[in-house]
Amino acid sequence: MNHHAPERPADLVARLRATFATGRTKPVEWRTGQLRRLRAMLTERGADLATALRADLGKSSTEAYRTEIDFTVREIDHTLDHLAQWLRPEPAPVPAHLGADARAWTQYDPLGVVLVIAPWNYPAQLLLAPMVGALASGNAVVAKPSELAPATSAALAELIPAYLDTDAVAVVEGGVPETTALLAERFDHIFYTGNGTVGRVVMRAAAEHLTPVTLELGGKSPVFVDRDTDLDVVADRLARGKFLNAGQTCVAPDYVLADPETAAALERALVRAVEALFGTDPQASPEYGRIVNERHFDRLSGLLDSGRVAVGGASDRTAKYIAPTVLADVDPKSPVMQEEIFGPILPLVTVSGLDEAIAFINDRDKPLALYVFSESEETRARIAAETSSGGLGHGLPLAHLTVSDLPFGGVGESGTGSYHGRYSIETFSHRKAVLEKPLG
Ligand code: NAD
What we know:
Layout: H1 9-21, H2 28-57, H3 61-87, E1 90-92, E2 103-110, E3 113-117, H4 125-136, E4 140-144, H5 150-163, E5 169-171, H6 176-183, E6 189-193, H7 196-208, E7 213-216, E8 222-225, H8 231-243, E9 255-258, H9 260-278, H10 294-301, E10 308-311, E11 315-316, E12 321-322, E13 325-328, E14 345-350, H11 354-362, E15 369-373, H12 377-386, E16 391-394, E17 415-416, H13 421-428, E18 429-436
Helix pairs in contact: 2-3, 2-5, 3-4, 4-13, 8-9
Bound molecules: nicotinamide-adenine-dinucleotide.
Nicotinamide-adenine-dinucleotide binds next to α6 and α7.
């Protein structure tokens, strides 16, 4: 069906619910068929998405493919490879009082109509990767891209209906009014990625209908760098992870904790690493992105004097450019240490050692990710045991979220629920308990 005038949210949800009620989305063939169509969309029209991502965020084509388009293709392929196995009913042992002829198992049921709300920073990946899980689980989907990445939102609104089953999948573009109107409807699951303030709005709206939610939020993801590590390796990996997408990554290293001696040596290594990656004028580097809009540019500019500039510090408002910046000697009370930075500024904060680092982390909200660079197995084990975070990365920032067999999600303020791979099936299905006792 093609709708030229925007459909009212109530009509849209009713239409998708009617499709779901026919049972059409349930067979595994429909699910894998939709995943293949989505894959075709990404391979045939990836260039259109890359162009949109450059317009919205100055993303290089390499980065657009690596972190959004190919990333989603890999998630689709992993799901296509394993879906039949993941959906297999799982037998459960039956207690003796039910008799030897009783059987019990769990099976995954689709939920119905699910809503996916995406943010602007990876505007394609963060709409499409949850959709992979929702479709693989046999649901109808309403997808709401971020209005703050308007080119990508428009591209997705054009492409998704051209490739997917329009009776079961719809894209709704818009900002707060449109999303508020959608949230008034009853969905069977709401999957929200973005900030915690809106996360609370989403959870409140969902509560009206007892709709379960997944909240993929953010926060300040700390890094601990131990003494006696190879700081050139650490600096290179930190700089790549931090300055990808100009620091606008939910799992980007937010700040670094190290003892004073390590911090001083790391500072010098980071200066070298930034130059090696982006040259002496990162504004001229085709690989370096831009800040999404003026509002975020102004917010980030206000954080540049929170410490001594070791490298970077330059900015250009008309180009929405902020240089990859490392701040040294940063006071934990300074503005840059109050909220998630979500931009290309890396503060170095000194602590006396591991105990103080653990206390520092545990004094604050549970982060989405925590990164540790240490040669000491004992240190790594202590951090794993004594802190709580959505994910934990030893030696390499960001990479844990590319492992499809790991659940991706936060804890506490950094979110609730998770997805990717088989964890997406858990999120977008109901695990139904079944008992069967013969009548004979
Ligand atoms: P955003 O401003 O694009 O908002 C996200 C979505 O919420 C958009 O679709 C927007 O239309 C909608 N929205 C905004 N206000 C709303 C309201 N009042 N009611 C209903 N819907 C509303 O993105 P953002 O929140 O700035 O994203 C950045 C945050 O997201 C950061 O904190 C980041 O860490 C987090 N994030 C988390 C993940 C993750 O996977 N955990 C990934 C990316 C970003």
